[in-house]
């Protein structure tokens, strides 16, 4: 493989952060400096990346997956030279464009038009390049009518559309993409994926970092799996995604939690929860749900004895620790479950009507007598997004008050009853 | 970060640890000149959006301050002006220059933290940020100066030919603001002390610079020391351009050139070294 065919060459890169130092007051810093003279190394060190090597050919579309904290964002920051590595080197051949977070630098007081130019130049486009693509950008965003309105009056959906449209029309040889597809409605996501695909098909090199495993599988030929700052798997995206999903331990991988040893659980040895998955409306494991999206919770359990009277409990706990909703098999169609020894999978289709926010799922297996056979609190964490799948329903308020949105039918009385003419 | 073009004009970027002291690449800044222009335009156009009197603020502030000083210093405390120049005109001329300078310095010192979002998400030559911060106050100065051009003949002060040089004095003030601001901008990323320090220094500066009193008020034995403040030289040079005679010794006028050259170079080196960790600590 000739060196010239490599678009991205990451050689033994490491990135160290020092914990507890950095931003602070001058007095703290002086104290640190004095101590530094006396004994080093000061503070705690944290290696966000260690000995990471990556070789991406021209025109390749490569995915990077891994849990939160695995080092994906640090890797992207290094690739986009926002920060420098502590060791190693990265060589990039070609102009680099990054979609690290769409809408960076958007100013609320400026109009959509002004922000397109501002954002484009922040992303490294020349003014004339933006002017040439301006119509295309606006058309892609689908907000022609509001292009001369200050973006502070935009809904969050419109904002994201415009921001992605600018970024998607960057024309770099190397494109770095991070999680942008987690935003917007499903149609727009599809449009973005399509755009990325055509960018990729156009001979451009793309590094795609995402939690969206199906998008990684769909877009990327190859993927890297990061864990604790190291590359632990590399290969075809199908293989690497599969490897990611079955990683051992009690840790959660985007909608799938494997309950291993060392997980805090209640109950004895007669029955054990093995795995809990949260499936979105399309049936894919996900830790992000759209507003109002119906989902399925699949619980795999292993029963060692026969139980004639078991009940499965699902509990939803909001970020403030308050249990906001509960469901039991006994109040659904299944009634009391008689479980024979062996492995079982129990699925619950849930219409929880949750408001946007962060939730955790508690899963329990009880007997009608009240005895708990097994229970894991907070086995899965997931996020409810601010817009519905089709974008037709958006939570418009800045602050989310409450956790559940009851399905409600409103009727409005005669006008005369409200305001006398 | 180092970038160089291969024979096929392809951009090759190498990201690796940097330890040497280097100057920021002006070529990179030049490549991003459109961004610089956009950021300046953003600041100028956002500043007076959704305000009732808009750009009139650029005139109201110095007029109000000059009036206050005219009453308390000029009339009550009997502080002199230059010969042949009404105190109010003298104070106003000083005030538009000082306000532009202090806004530039303050904005520059705050620029890195104000752009934390950009610095931690997108790469571009970091120097663009403080540069974009010092330029918008020049617009305020231009507006204030236009009013001065009208006020001069009305108040019976002639217009000297040297007045055409005034833009150079404004640029020199901007250079001094950048020379100091670069250091503060780099420090600000680590130490939020800067947000308290800079307004305080600028408040002191208002009194140790000949803005609302003439240079001649400073006793001769203290003048050399007084002139170490580079803004003294800027103000005296500017007054010479406006009123046609230099009231301060020549060395005072030299100070801002020397200070801005030295401090700018040092500031640029320091900023370049500090920017490597901006995204990590901001």
Description of the molecule:
With 421 residues, chain A is α+β, with helices and mostly antiparallel strands. Helices cover 23% and strands 35% of the residues of chain A. Chain A has 9 helices and 21 strands. The radius of gyration of chain A is 25 Å and the shape is globular. With 282 residues, chain B is mainly alpha-helical. Chain B has one domain. Helices cover 67% and strands 3% of the residues of chain B. A two-stranded antiparallel sheet of chain B has the order 1-2. Chain B is globular and about 60 Å long. Chain A binds chain B through residues 17, 22-26, 29, 77-96, 98, 100-101, 104-105, 107, 109-110, 114, 117-118, 121-127, 173, and chain B through 1, 10-18, 32, 34-35, 37-39, 42, 45-46, 49-50, 117-124, 189-193, 276-277, 279-282.
Q: Could you state the CATH homologous superfamily of the largest domain in chain A?
A: P-loop containing nucleotide triphosphate hydrolases
- Please name the CATH architecture of the largest domain in chain A: 3-Layer(aba) Sandwich
Percentage of residues assigned to helices of chain A = 10-25%
Number of domains of chain A: 2
Largest interface (CB within 8 Å) is between: A-B, 46 and 40 residues
Number of domains of chain B: 1
């Amino acid at each position: 493989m000739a060196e010239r065919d490599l678009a991205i060459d990451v050689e033994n890169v490491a990135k160290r952060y020092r914990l507890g130092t950095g931003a602070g007051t001058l007095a703290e810093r002086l104290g640190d400096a004095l101590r530094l003279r006396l004994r080093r190394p000061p503070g705690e060190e944290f290696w966000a990346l260690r000995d990471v090597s990556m070789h991406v050919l021209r025109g390749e579309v490569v995915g990077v997956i891994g849990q939160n904290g695995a080092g994906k964002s640090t890797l992207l920051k290094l690739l986009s030279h926002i920060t420098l590595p502590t060791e190693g080197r990265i060589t990039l051949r070609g102009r680099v464009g990054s979609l690290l977070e769409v809408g960076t630098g958007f100013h609320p007081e400026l109009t959509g038009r002004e922000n397109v130019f501002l954002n484009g130049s922040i992303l490294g486009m020349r003014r004339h390049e933006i002017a040439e693509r301006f119509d295309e950008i606006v058309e892609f965003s689908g907000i022609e009518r509001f292009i001369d309105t200050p973006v502070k009056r935009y809904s969050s959906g419109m904002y994201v559309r415009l921001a992605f449209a600018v970024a998607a029309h960057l024309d770099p040889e190397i494109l770095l993409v991070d999680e942008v597809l987690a935003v917007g409605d499903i149609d727009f996501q599809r449009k973005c994926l399509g755009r990325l695909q055509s960018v990729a098909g156009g001979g451009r090199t793309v590094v795609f970092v995402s939690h969206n495993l199906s998008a990684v599988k769909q877009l990327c030929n190859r993927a890297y799996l990061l864990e604790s700052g190291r590359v632990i798997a590399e290969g075809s995206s199908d293989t690497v995604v599969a490897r990611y999903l079955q990683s051992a331990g009690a840790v959660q991988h985007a909608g799938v939690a494997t309950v291993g040893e060392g997980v805090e659980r209640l109950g004895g040895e007669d029955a054990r929860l093995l795995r809990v998955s949260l499936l979105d409306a399309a049936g894919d494991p996900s830790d992000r749900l759209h507003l109002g999206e119906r989902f399925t919770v699949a619980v795999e359990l292993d029963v060692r004895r026969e139980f004639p009277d078991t009940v499965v409990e699902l509990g939803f706990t909001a970020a403030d620790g308050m249990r906001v909703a509960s469901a039991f098999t006994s109040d659904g169609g299944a009634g009391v479950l008689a479980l024979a020894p062996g492995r079982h999978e129990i699925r619950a289709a849930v219409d929880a009507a949750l408001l946007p926010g962060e939730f955790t799922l508690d899963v329990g297996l009880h007997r009608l007598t009240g005895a708990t056979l097994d229970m894991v609190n907070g086995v899965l964490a997931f996020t409810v997004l601010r817009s519905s799948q089709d974008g037709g329903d958006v939570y418009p308020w800045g602050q989310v008050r409450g956790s559940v949105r009851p399905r409600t039918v409103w009727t409005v009385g005669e006008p005369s009853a409200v305001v006398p003419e | 970060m180092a970038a160089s073009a291969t024979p096929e004009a392809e951009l090759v970027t190498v990201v690796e640890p940097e330890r040497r002291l280097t100057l920021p690449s002006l070529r990179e800044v030049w490549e991003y000149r459109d961004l610089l222009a956009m950021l300046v335009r953003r600041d100028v156009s956002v500043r007076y959006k959704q305000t009732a009197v808009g750009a009139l603020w650029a005139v109201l502030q110095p007029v109000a301050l000059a009036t206050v000083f005219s009453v308390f210093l000029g009339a009550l405390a009997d502080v002199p002006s230059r010969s042949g120049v009404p105190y109010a005109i003298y104070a106003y001329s000083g005030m538009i220059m000082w306000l532009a300078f202090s806004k530039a310095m303050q904005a520059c010192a705050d620029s890195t933290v104000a752009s934390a979002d950009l610095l931690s998400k997108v790469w571009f030559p970091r120097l663009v940020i403080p540069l974009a911060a010092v330029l918008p106050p020049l617009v305020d100065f231009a507006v204030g100066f236009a009013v001065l051009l009208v006020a001069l003949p009305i108040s019976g002060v002639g217009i000297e030919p040297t007045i055409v040089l005034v833009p150079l004095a404004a640029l020199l003030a901007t250079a001094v603001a950048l020379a100091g601001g670069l250091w503060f901008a780099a420090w600000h990323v680590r130490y939020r002390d800067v947000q308290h320090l800079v307004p305080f220094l600028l408040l002191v500066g208002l009194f140790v610079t000949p803005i609302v009193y003439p240079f001649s008020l400073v006793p001769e034995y203290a003048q050399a020391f007084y002139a170490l403040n580079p803004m003294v030289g800027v103000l005296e040079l500017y007054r010479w351009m406006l009123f046609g005679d230099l009231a301060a010794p020549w060395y005072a006028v030299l100070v801002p050139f020397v200070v801005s050259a030295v401090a700018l170079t040092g500031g640029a080196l320091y900023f370049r070294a500090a920017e490597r960790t901006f995204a990590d600590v901001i």
